[in-house]
Predict the structure.
Amino acid sequence: MSSSDVTVDGLKGIRPGREAMTGSNHVREGQPGKRRRRRGGRGSMVPEAEFSSYYGRPIVKEATWAAPDIAGYLFLGGLAGASSALAAGAQLSGRPGLARPLKLGACGAIYVSLAALVHDLGRPSRFLNMLRVFKPTSPMSVGVWILSAYAPAATAAALGELSGRARALTVAGSTAAGLLGPAVASYTAVLIANTATPAWHDGHREMPFVFVGSAASAAAGLGLLCAPLRENAPALRLAVIGASVEMAAVQVMERRIGIVAENYHQGRAGKLMRTAEALTLAGVAGALTRGRRSRRVSALSGAALLAASACARFGIFDAGLRSARDPRYTVTPQRERLQAQRG
Amino acid sequence: MSPRAPSLLSSVRGHGDPAADSGYPDHPPRVGFFTDTSLCIGCKACEVACKEWNQVPEDGLNFTGMSLDNSEGLSAETWRHVAFIEQRKPIADSQTNMQRGLATVIDLALDGAPAQAPSLPRLPASAQDGRDGDFRWLMSSDVCKHCTDAACLDVCPTGALMRSEFGTVVVQEDICNGCGYCVPACPYGVIDKREEDGRVFKCTLCYDRLGEGMEPACAKACPTNSIQFGELDELRERAGRRVEQLQESGVEDACLYGHDPADGVGGDGAFFLLLDEPEVYGLPPDPVATTRELPRMWRHAALAAAGLLGAVGVSVAGRR
């Protein structure tokens, strides 16, 4: 009864062309099973990589976070945390002119941060669900609890500064915010490094130092921008330390992560990282030279350092997304790790 | 499957009993999937059954040109995904055996008796010419791995992601606030955010069916037993036997993926038999749960924070 046209020799009557193959018009980079050799972007330092993939599709998912919200938070959170620390130091060492703008800046930055963080949630109305649990395995949970302690302290410091009343409360707030600030500035490095995103995770050893360096240089920038010349010497010193730590940590990280470092050099991330470096150098140089005497140059140098920190955070954020999009950065380091284990 | 006392094996091992570690002192045995891709025919019944049972919304009718794969990968709307890989490569000796077997059957049918030396059925001329004719089609149904050390679960700040009594990983939709942290944390790129909804979604290993003693919808629908559901210990044994059997019959590429409790995620609750390198199927060759490095990250962050305090101290110490 069967009237099938399918025989051992193929379809009876209509035979497909001998060379016909589904998908043959899609022979392209990333075709499965086709091994390809690619050169690492930076020649000598990166060994030639060999990898295959499923139609060039990403293996890990890139973060769903929006750049203005989360990269913005990485910058503002760092700025707030380091500013509070420097403000507390300025206050204790009798430099009210430096402490005041830093306290106000930290408070403003942390509220914009909190708004950005809530805005980035898929269900902003459920943001309080973050306070259901405390999980040390989740840097986001740890961060929420740090912020819950830090934000009121920074608020007390800023309100006291503005009103000039409740002196004891202001000092307590300022000191508490100064002690918690460095935690705010450094935990965000763990937040992004604790993912499967190659450019973030692979740099997990250096990322906290990159982040606090960037945060210190941003806070110093705010000090140089707003404080009177006679009080801004601590900001200048912190700018030099912060910028040096940040640039050194970036160098060490890029050297260690091999092929994944390409993400910090190419595309939009590369542009942002180069801009950040140039602005940092310009800011530090300006502040160290004419900035010591000229209020205007000092302010300009401070603004350059602030912009540099923002560029660096957006650059690091973008490098991560970029590295997740290309399966090469997931496969190649894992293959190298397996090979090293086998000896 | 009705809940039973934990098997002796899983309680002795210590590792690989995530349900006990998560606070279920008395729990049913850990269950999972063994997806044997050597049996997959690419029918996508698993994709359809999953969407139907779990009422996963439609996410566009795309034409990708990636062989027969138009669902592209696992996502918030695709919890089972069938990959199609076309290769200029022989399936090793097994093809010859298969063809020899086929030839015998044909000879039997034609002559009533097997020929002395079974001849290969006629192949297209291009196939006989050499390598150009070698062709194989790999198909594999991907799914959430329900890792023993699940990064998504570790990083979830609300506790929305939880470990079930069956050892699986499930999102509680009434708690998830869509922070999205689990999305980049998953080393396999499984879990994803549904943009219009705001929350994250992934395979639940049909938690609702497990509770009723039923197998997950995809395994139920699989017509070739490529997707096998059961107690994880038993599946691992079965998979070990199967890979031996395949290798003995000449399929030397056959290997297990995600079966080893000593791997970077403590072993997968859903593991695979593959016929090529994992990355060819879009799977990471050596996935590691990111939280394994977390203690070091926290130490470095603490050191960096202390360094910042110190730097501020040095900066304000000067007289000017």
Q: What stands out?
A: Chain A has a mean pLDDT of 89. Residues 67-321 of chain A form a domain with the Formate dehydrogenase/DMSO reductase fold fold (CATH 1.20.1630.10). The longest helix of chain A spans residues 295-325. Strands of chain A lie at 6-7, 10-11, 36-38, 49-51.
